[in-house]
Amino acid sequence: MLDGAEVAKHSSRKSCWIVINSKVYDVTSFVPEHPGGSTILLKQAGADASSEYAKYHSPEVVNDLPEGSYLGDIDPSTLSALNAPKGLSRPEVQEATAQSSEGQVPHVSLCVRASDFEAAAKATLPNKSWIYASSSANSGASLQGNLDDWSRVSFRPRILRNVESVEVGTKILGNATPLPFYVSPMGSMGSIHGEGEIEMTKAIVQTGLHGLMSTASTKTTEQIVETYLAEQERRGHGSASKLMFQLYIPTDRQKAIELIRRVKKAGFHSLWITVDTPVLGKRTADRYQQAQEALDAGLEEEEVEPAAELEIETQGGEAPKVSPKIGGRPPPGQLSAKTTWEDLKWIRQEWDRPIILKGVQCAEDAKLAVEYGCQGILLSNHGGRQMHTAPSALMTLCEIRTYAPETLAKLEVFVDGGLRDGADVLKALCLGATAVGVGRLFLYAMAAYGAKGVERCVDVLAEELTTAMRLLGITSLDQVRPELVNARRLLNEMWVPEQTFVKSRL
Ligand code: HEM
Ligand SMILES: Cc1cc2nc3c(=O)[nH]c(=O)nc-3n(C[C@H](O)[C@H](O)[C@H](O)COP(=O)(O)O)c2cc1C
């Protein structure tokens, strides 16, 4: 057993030990590699990092540390000798939970529009968690494009039809769903709510929606499935809800295979492989926040200068790396910049259930997804968190309708990004989508009100959707068709092949 006073001595970049769940790790060599930045680890040097760690990672992520990092267990009677995290006094650390400023949260009944949950989350969350949930890449143009493009498609309502009763149920990959939307996968839910994925899973079963769980969850796959099964049991197995798995392909092939096998054994219905993330996008607000945090903790002078790092790497004969601070390095172990279409072949050998590619952004790749035997594609730019000025899902859908319409008959096509009003779901369905993924709205609702908030958010979206159906003159989702919307504004700006430009100039 290790003594707290001994651990506390290793509190610098030169020697950095941290405690996670009563185990002591030497993370010195990992600090400059940590994809979440070195500051967050250095702040925990010689301290108990368990609660901060649990906000971002599942208990298993520590196993990705280099061999030999685990030093032993901490002697529980010496915990008080550990350091307090740098830059924060102890009471502040304890207060920094999603529930910290509950008093300021508006009453849930004031969330009248689905978009109202955003303000409620902002009032609830500690700043760091708010930034994590709301941030986007670079200038924010991709996120803004997502938000804007829903309004750039308008409806063409039909009148004088009997719309007294409306049916909003449909199917996703052959499974009934009460509503044509589902819960998008979001990592690190522990930073948003103490029970993160557990709370979201309860809401999923309660509402009957299908839910995608992220590889970067803060609870293990098994914990999530256990909750799902217990909730199903509690409700007499009456919920249509299915759990689906979002896969970031681990760089180590063997680890990837093991993960896929675990997910299969746990009973997940389908594999949604995220393909828009060979490297993490430049999350601007997180960067400002991290830089400020480093300054506040007095750690900035300890940061490795990118130039120095480049030099060392080059001298060592390896390809130059780029520090996470200036972007470009894939998180070790979790994202692989080397993944290609060919990798789908060995994944297919391991997984005989539906495969959906998450993050398709042009018509050519939609065609390739058909060739590689996928069952679905999710048109997405990761909620504007990856590529700068990426197309919105609606724009990509228009592109596919124009250049690869045959794929719509061969694949189920999903869209996500920027949905803030249930009525807008109808626009995607009219243009040929099967269903829409909802990310931040549900995360915001959970932040402010837990599972009950997510349930309320689903009700609000459902109400917006059914009202819009009636006003559009339809009573069930098999009546949606392209003539019910005007997508001309998007079509005007849609990509056209270079040849078309040339012809039009002649
Ligand atoms: C000690 C073992 C650790 C390992 C192996 C590890 C690994 C990783 C990996 C692979 C990522 C990038 C992918 C992801 O977002 O999940 C990441 C991100 C991150 N990590 Fe860690 N981490 C460790 C410890 C910690 C600790 C102790 C903290 C907090 C005190 C922390 C906070 C974060 C944060 C805030 C991010 C960024 C999340 C985001 O912006 O998406 N990590 N870490
Ligand atoms: C906080 C947060 C975390 C996310 N984590 C993941 C993830 O782990 N894996 C993934 O494929 N997509 C992730 N996404 C992207 C979502 O699955 C989805 O594509 C996006 O949120 C949809 O946009 P919306 O939030 O505007 O609805 C994340 C999004 C947010 C906001």
Description:
This protein is of the alpha/beta class and 506 residues long. It folds into 2 domains: 115 residues, Flavocytochrome B2, Chain A, domain 1 (Roll); 314 residues, Aldolase class I (TIM Barrel, Alpha-Beta Barrel), CATH 3.20.20.70. Helices cover 40% and strands 11% of the residues. The protein is built from 20 helices and 15 strands. The strands form 4 sheets. Strands 7-14-13-12-11-10-9-8 form an 8-stranded parallel sheet. The protein is globular and about 75 Å long. It starts with a helix and ends with a helix. About 8% of the residues have low confidence. The protein binds protoporphyrin IX containing FE (HEM) and flavin mononucleotide (FMN). The site of protoporphyrin IX containing FE (HEM) has 26 residues, from α2 and α3.
List keywords for this structure.
single chain; 506 residues; alpha/beta; Flavocytochrome B2, Chain A, domain 1; TIM Barrel; three-stranded antiparallel sheet; 20 helices; 15 strands; globular; binds protoporphyrin IX containing FE; binds flavin mononucleotide
